[in-house]
Amino acid sequence: MKWAFFVFLGLYVVAFLLFLTGTFGWFGQDEDALSGVFLLPLGLPWNILMDRIGVSNLVPMLLAPAINLGILFWLWKK
Prior knowledge:
mainly alpha
């Protein structure tokens, strides 16, 4: 479980940095509306749940992978 936690953490950090780079145009990158697409699969099933209850905001998409990361951390320490 330790490996799964750290792999997921690495993927989350990379996807978050790609989101910030595409959103704010860092490093000469064009601003792109689809820059957060890599965060979506990391946040499943929480992204779908938030969409179904009517929360269509950017914050749940950014924080949904953190819920999965917390679950992985809990399973690792259990």
